[in-house]
Write a sequence for this structure.
């Protein structure tokens, strides 16, 4: 399948393509923003729902174990059995809270094996501490304060320090995890910002180039059409509009070129026809009858009708001229005939006069003969003159 050049795509399609690119660009930026925002939200959720609660539990474990040790220390130094009973109840409640905290941490907030190992170590040291505490409390209840204090500041302290240290390690591990998640969120945000900037720049550049191209593709040929039609309106038909595309502008340009060519052919043909008509050639034919299409057809019909009427007028003129010539010739012949008849009548009259004069005397006859000769000469001269005039 032949792929059309962008120049040959219709203007509507070009504008739709520009709009499609803009929409796709916005969709891409929006999708990238949503994906990155979701990742940032996951990092934030991980911090707020995993790392921070784990830190809180680890710190609460450390605090509650400290509370337990404080109560245990009070138990070792007091001598009041009722106080001891009350302290033991509180210590058992603290134990239950610590066990619940361990269970919650293990079920919900362990992230990897390192975290699990830290939790198990802390619990192991705490269990050892409780075992030692279970041996210490009966001694304290027996009011052996010296022995109980010795146990508290001795091995009990070491076990407590180990357990407390592991709780602090758990808290530090989760704090570092929260910081890492925060850094990851910052990195995601930075990546989102970079991607947005690059995407916006690329899409803006693409849209700008398309807009500039479409403006040039429309503005330049339209200006050429305006200039060409202005020249045509001023009578200049030596105009050709170059534009090699198949869009609406190209079709319009081609139509204008065809119109100019038809006008030029029609005008040249009319010059030729009227020149031949001026030479009284009424049988001349148009050299481009195909140009007289549509509303131009009546022009050729009018010219043909004019030639037909002029041809008829010419024939009538020639016929009238011929009749006039024949009439003039007939009149000349009639005048000549009348002149000849007049001449003959004159000669006959002279002959009769000469005959009657012959009967007179000789002198008179001679005199009359001389006069007759003179008159005859004059008559002959007059007849010759009339013949020449005829």
């Amino acid at each position: 399948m032949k792929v059309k050049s962008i120049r040959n795509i219709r203007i509507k399609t070009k504008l739709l393509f520009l709009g499609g690119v803009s929409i796709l660009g916005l969709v891409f930026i929006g999708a990238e923003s949503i994906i990155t925002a979701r990742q940032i939200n996951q990092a934030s959720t991980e911090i707020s729902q995993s790392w921070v609660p784990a830190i809180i539990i680890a710190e609460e474990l450390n605090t509650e174990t400290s509370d337990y040790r404080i109560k245990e220390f009070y138990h070792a130094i007091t001598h009041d059995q009722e106080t001891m009973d009350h302290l033991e109840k509180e210590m058992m409640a603290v134990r239950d809270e610590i066990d619940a905290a361990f269970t919650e941490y293990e079920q919900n907030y362990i992230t990897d094996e390192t975290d699990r190992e830290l939790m198990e170590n802390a619990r192991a040291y705490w269990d050892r501490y409780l075992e030692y505490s279970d041996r210490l409390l009966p001694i304290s209840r027996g009011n052996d304060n010296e022995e109980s204090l010795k146990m508290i500041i001795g091995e009990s302290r070491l076990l407590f320090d180990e357990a407390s240290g592991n709780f602090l390690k758990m808290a530090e591990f989760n704090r570092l995890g929260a910081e890492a998640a925060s850094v990851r969120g910052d990195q995601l945000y930075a990546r989102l910002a970079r991607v947005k900037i690059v995407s916006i720049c690329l899409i803006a550049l693409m849209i700008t180039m398309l807009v500039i191209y479409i403006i040039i593709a429309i503005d330049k040929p339209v200006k050429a059409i305006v200039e060409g039609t202005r020249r045509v309106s001023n009578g200049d038909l030596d105009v050709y509009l170059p534009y090699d595309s198949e869009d609406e502008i190209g079709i319009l340009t081609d139509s204008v070129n065809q119109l100019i060519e038809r006008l030029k052919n029609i005008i040249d043909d009319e010059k030729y026809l009227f020149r031949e008509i001026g030479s009284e050639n009424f049988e001349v034919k148009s050299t481009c009858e195909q140009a007289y299409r549509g509303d131009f057809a009546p022009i050729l019909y009018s010219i043909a009708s004019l030639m037909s009427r002029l041809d008829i007028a010419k024939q009538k003129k020639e016929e009238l001229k011929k009749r006039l010539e024949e009439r003039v010739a007939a009149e000349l012949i009639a005048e000549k005939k009348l002149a000849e008849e007049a001449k003959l009548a004159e000669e006959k009259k002279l002959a009769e006069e000469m005959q009657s004069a012959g009967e007179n005397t000789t002198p008179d006859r001679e005199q009359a003969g001389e006069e007759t000769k003179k008159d005859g000469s004059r008559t002959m001269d007059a007849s010759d003159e009339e013949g020449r005039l005829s």
